[in-house]
Amino acid sequence: MAEVRDREVAAARAPALHVPHEEALGFWRKYVFSTDHKVIGIQYAVTGLLFLLFGFSLMMLMRWQLAYPEQPLPWIGRLLGDSRAPGGVMLPEFYNQLGAMHGTIMVFLGVVPLAVGGFGNFVLPLQIGAPDMAFPKVNMASYWCYFLGGVTMFVSFFAPGGAAQAGWTSYPPLAAITPFWGQVLWLVGMVFLITSSLLGSINFITTTIQLRAEGMTFFRLPFFVWAQFVTAFLLLLAFPPLEAAAVLQLMDRIAGTSFFMPSGLVVSGQPLEISGGGSPLLWQHLFWFLAHPEVYVLILPAMGIVAEVIANNTRKPLWGYRTMVYSVVFLGFMSFIVWAHHMFLTGMGTTIAGFFQTTTMIISVPSVIILTALFLSLWGGSIRFTTPMLFALAFLPMFGIGGLTGLPLGLSATDIHLHDTYYVIGHFHYVVAPGTIFALFAGIYHWFPKATGRKMSEFLGKLHFWPSLVFMNMVFFPMLIQGLAGVSRRLYDGGAMYTHAQEVLYWNKIMSFGAWGLAVAQLPFVVNFFRSIRGGEPVSRNPWEATTLEWAAPSPPPHGNFERPPVVYRGPYEYSVPGSAAGYLPQHVAAEH
Amino acid sequence: MQLPYAATARPDTGVTNGKLGTWLFLASEVMLFGALFATYIILRVGATHWPHGAELLNVPLATINTAVLITSSVTMVMAWASCAQRSLGRFRLYMGLTILLGAVFLVIKYFEYAAKIHHHLYPRTNTFLAIYFTLTGLHAFHVFGGMVLNAYFWGPGVRLWRENPEWFTHRVEHAGLFWHFVDLVWIFLFPTLYLL
């Protein structure tokens, strides 16, 4: 109904048809070196998903070592080779590689590329009614920089001495004395990834400001676009300092400078032959100046996806859309001045700690406002429990746990007890794994019909959702318990050698089985994903009866997206409009007759 | 597929896509060099001894280089103005001069570096030289990048002139913004490293 009406209205308004002509491009230009934002989005998403799987596999190896310290890994152990696991027993150095690379891959190669590069690229131009990104070639360059960064990180496992071992944070001086090639490749990989994010963020901001369709004012932008818009600013302004830091650490490694090396540094009883005079704290400041905004880069797109899915499936406008927009902008600003709450234990001084714990408490306010608005949006809705909605609903309490467990870490006094324990691991995994990754799954199920023209199976979707929810909690909740008991998060044997850890040691096996169960629970998703590309139920433009502009384009949209430039007449979430025949008013429909 | 507002400004924002993109890129560059200047401050504040720039560095050469870069910014503006007046010949002259002055800057910089190495003053010698080489090296890299960009507009990029001189003028303006930024970074680097 709405579609027909739309076509009539638009035809009356724009008699001069603008038909995007489908250029005859070869296979390579169309699918590999494409400048189409949708193809690039899918490239980002698929590569990101593969890296998520790879990073997850690294962690499953670690979980064996934690549950069964120094016992040979069954089957896989022998394949790892003597330099990594002689006799199938993992070496501490290899465990450290797994830890460092799990973090790096999950954050920089998995979640961010999927959330920003994948969903941002695919959905944002469609939702604002644009034919493409503002700089299509830059967009392509952004993907290929990311790809090169990923290859560099992957290859580092096979370098002499293995991959980087100094944690995903690469703190010097530890990072300066681990095997040479692993760390250098890590730094070079980071420079590629940072360049990729910079190119992407310039594109996102310019596209949002310049290519909005007629009538698409800023307060008619879907919340998802706002979230991506703020995220892009964080990437644009927070990543360059890490690029500088990576260059400085490369100089330390290659040119023998001492940017991060203090005077009088002694390693294994030998004084290092360096000029000294540098500051290890400086690296931490530069790193966290990026990495705290990075937390919001991980979470804001997720909130954007959840907002879209919730509004669509409750059939109600979002509660407090404007408040959410103001909150997300405020959050973006604040995220630049909270970074040192990761550094309360470094001895940087109580005055600075006092400042940063205050800003940290302030930044929790807009996060709570957004989450509350999303909860209140459920009130009185006639909820459709589709697979994307289930993931979006699970995001709310899971992110809630992640957020609330963060409060004691944001206060410097309580942080002293908790900081180096598994509590921290539990806290941020609740934010990113059952939080962000669930939101990303919601997004995949929600926009899959738009990308392929076919729906994913609801049955397999639910078979994916429920076990994932159980296993996620089985993996991460015990971490909070172990952490409160004081178990350090950096132990090769999971705490087996410590007396105070004995009482909570049995959780290690439970968590490990949870992790392996979580892997099994992803199988329905993999089957569903590949089977639905060709065998899913075919859909028209708007299978979810949604209001935003991406659903006005064909599924899948052609190069250029819309048959004619859409015109926007209303806000993004006009569901359950009184007196409306269809029950909802899409943004591009002029008026109900 | 022709994207909207690539060649003409969007009425409500008043800018073309390229101009906004260029300014955003420059914002990220400010953060990049900002972090390095912050590094300079932290290293210097924490140092027991910090050499006076003139003790180790060649101030007269750097002064000449400052003049060279400022002159190149002037020729860059002339190149853009020639475009705006639709004179391709003068554009090529001034853009050529800009590229040439960039090359002069790099050659002088090369002699400075060579003299340091000759006197066994390496990045690893002390943190002052470390930050000196990093900052000026990264800046020289930017100068080189700007030269490549300018050379593109001087040479193969000119074909856009024949199709759409207005768009070409916009793009020269964007290249100019970058060139002025690189110049500006040097204006900060020169006193910080050589004079303070």
Characterization of the model:
- The complex is a heterodimer of chains A (593) and B (196).
- Chain A is mainly α and 593 residues long.
- Helices cover 63% and strands 1% of the residues of chain A.
- Chain A contains 18 helices and 2 strands.
- Chain A has a two-stranded antiparallel ribbon with strand order 1-2.
- The longest helix of chain A has 36 residues.
- In chain B, α1 runs antiparallel to α5.
- Chain B contains 7 helices and no strands.
- Chain B is mostly helical and 196 residues long.
- Classes of the chains: A mainly alpha (593), B mainly alpha (196).
- Chains A and B meet through α8, α9 and α10 of A and α1 and α5 of B.
Indicate the percent of residues in helices of chain B.
Answer: over 70%
Estimated share of beta-strand residues of chain B:
under 5%
Query: Whole-number average pLDDT of chain A?
Result: 93
Q: Supply the number of helical segments of chain B.
A: 7
N-to-C CA distance of chain A: 12 Å
The rough form of chain B would be described as: elongated
The fraction of residues assigned to DSSP E strands of chain A is: under 5%
In short:
By secondary structure, chain A is an all-alpha fold.
Name the descriptors.
heterodimer, A: 593 residues, mainly alpha, two-stranded antiparallel sheet, 18 helices, 2 strands, globular, disordered N terminus, B: 196 residues
List strands and helices in order, with pairings.
The complex is a heterodimer of chains A (593) and B (196).
Chain A: H1 2-13, H2 27-32, H3 37-67, H4 76-79, H5 92-127, H6 136-155, H7 174-177, H8 180-210, H9 223-254, E1 266-267, E2 270-271, H10 280-314, H11 321-334, H12 350-378, H13 387-410, H14 412-418, H15 422-452, H16 458-484, H17 507-521, H18 523-535
Antiparallel strand pairs in A: 1-2
Helix pairs in contact in A: 3-5, 3-6, 3-17, 5-6, 5-8, 5-9, 5-10, 5-15, 6-8, 8-9, 9-10, 9-11, 10-12, 10-13, 10-15, 11-12, 12-13, 13-15, 13-16, 15-16, 16-17, 16-18
Chain B: H1 17-46, H2 53-56, H3 59-84, H4 88-118, H5 127-154, H6 159-163, H7 165-195
